[in-house]
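2024-03-11 09:14:02 DEBUG pipeline.ingest accepted 1 chain
2024-03-11 09:14:02 DEBUG pipeline.ingest length=343
2024-03-11 09:14:03 DEBUG pipeline.predict start
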Amino acid sequence: MQIGCHKKLLEYLGKKPQPRSPEEDSLLGWSATLQLFNRRRIILVANDETRYNFIFYGIKKGDLKNFDDLLLGGIRSCFEQECISPAIFDKYIAETAGGAAIKFTKSPSPKITARLRELLSSATQFQSFFSLKTLLQFHITPSLNSNTFLPDEYCEPIRRTFVRALKKRYGEDIFASRAVELEITLGTSNVFRRRIVVPIQYNFRELHYIIVTAFGWPNSGFLKHFLKYNYWLEKDSEGRPLSKLESEEPAPSDISYESRLCYLVTLDEVFSKYSAITYNYRLEDGWAFAIKLVGFQDNHDKPYPVCVEGSVFTLPVSFSEDPPGSFDIDHVNDQLEKMFYKG
């Protein structure tokens, strides 16, 4: 696989540029650039045809010995993020020049170099989510690729461009991902219950949006985005948390347990270990949802989460003021598709 590199990146990697294979399809090529941001190094990598991109943040010299593996892992994560079949990814890699062997070259053109600068500038708007706890900033890849702004030319969302290009090359049937099936119940009653299937690479911030949508707050966007929530993974014998995922960083003085930010943790990581956790939403009101693992699916054929069943009611925004509405599974799945699928 060819990775076209900006001069500064080649120097940082200690690589001499190799000759490019000019006949390679631009969909099979990727290019990368390096920049300092807040005294940390960012490497942005983008597909030459579609602009689909991902970033490494806080990379250090010691990370470079495995940089080839990091690059392949980053490209694989792009396919996983869009729920593309592993078989399609393997076929894609086999078609690139040199296959899985990375070949570092000069940037293919000044246009690509300028495009990388634009993408990097756009990426910095998500700086509040940059984390030194992971090199690959997988949690912001969807946001990076929802961008539609490009100077002097029309462009649809980058994610859509990427998926359509893969469909054109490999056919319509490109989706197959591992997913987790979860049953979610408010309190101890089955009156408010949903069963959902979610790709395992989703993080717990995304799961929050899925749950809120599945339980039906269609006109309450402020609830989705601004109320605090958390997940309890483990409790002690007295019911106090031992391990939590938080919607925002807690004050150091408040931490008496293991705490992680929910957008840095995937469903795969948690449900490979736990069969049941608790989701606490609207903390001031004490809404506690039991989340139970039903099982894993190996060939989820939708590039977004789906609700497969549920009780007859939606949750009211306020129990004291609003009666519960009726549950419409087709409407819920339409909302989930619009929220998470950009193809």
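2024-03-11 09:14:41 DEBUG pipeline.report The CA atoms of residues 304 and 337 lie 6 Å apart.
2024-03-11 09:14:41 DEBUG pipeline.predict end
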